[in-house]
Amino acid sequence: MKYEGHNFRLPIPNIRELWSLDPNITFLNHGSFGACPQAVLSMQQQLRSKLEAEPVRFFIREWEPLINESRNQLAHFIGADERDLVFVPNATTGVNAVLRSLHFSPDDELLTTNHEYNACRNALDFVVSRSDARLVVAKIPFPLESPQQVIAAVLERVSAKTKLVLLDHITSQTGLILPIPELVRELNLRGVDTLIDGSHAPGMIPLNLQEIGATYYTGNCHKWLCAPKGAAFLYVVRDKQSEIRPLTISHGANSPRTDKSSFQLEFDWMGTDDPTAYICVAEAIKFMSSLLSGGWDELRQRNHELVCQGREVLCDALKVLPPCPENMIGSMAVIPMPESWENLDFASIHDQLFDHFAIEVPLTPWQEKPKLLMRISAQIYNSIEEYKYLAEVLTSVRGEKERQR
Q: What predicted TM-score, i.e. pTM, was given to this entire model?
């Protein structure tokens, strides 16, 4: 169903000028690091100027109320109680804080999937190696036809020894929205705690963390919320918060304050740092909601429809099939590259697209066929013409490589 409003096939006049993006680059990789609008960056610079004008006043009197207000706005946006949220620099830090706070024994099993983000998989491997717990990997097929395949793959690897399950909400390499509410519900019924890496979820899909019911949930604000780099959150259910400690132990560990939980006191202050990215999260939410008359709902729908159209254009050009149904993608979509590309170096293809055609789009290897994946993103500053341009370039490059064989 198409939303009422601006035609998503056409660029919104002057919208890209609200970002600092290089106008000479076809930027189809919002998913990797996001892109912060100039208005939000301007607010951050004002806060930094205020901080440096009187650092003692800022850190002693001003920063905490600003952090609290930003957290309250974020909590409302993601369906959480603000008392259950803390800010962290990125989702990987959130995953590490949870994994390294918990205690596992050699009898415990930790479960993840073959789609788990590499950095978080490394954190999981590290914790398992130190505790002698057993790591179990559920193999989710790709390509796939339905969310039920994900649910079946995960649940069949759950055992009486499963202590924790680490799942991406939206996978990085394959761009899949996993059926997290259904999985969490089934795992809760089995008495298994869940750690959800929602790196891409905030701003890409609607969130209600209290309804999802995960034990732990972490997500980035710098990606689809378009906050400054260095802003993410960690959500922990109330009865588990006393167990979760930040990676840096600081003043909050023995604070006598009673107006906040130890959970927030410890995470809120881990030493002198620049907190302005956290403070700007509320402004980013407000700014992005103002770009279309339908607010966040219209923005998410526009991005979803645009990336689906972009995927269709590219799959047609490359003569490949879409690897998953549209209801399993949000604002990112993966295109399996043709078999003739499988033995090519993905980094060199990326560099060729960037250096010769000024296109920024990621290509990554996959574990089995299709062995090479290309991931496109859609943000409000993108248009269908950009995906058509990428399709034309790929068709040209493909023809040239086949002539050279």
A: 0.94
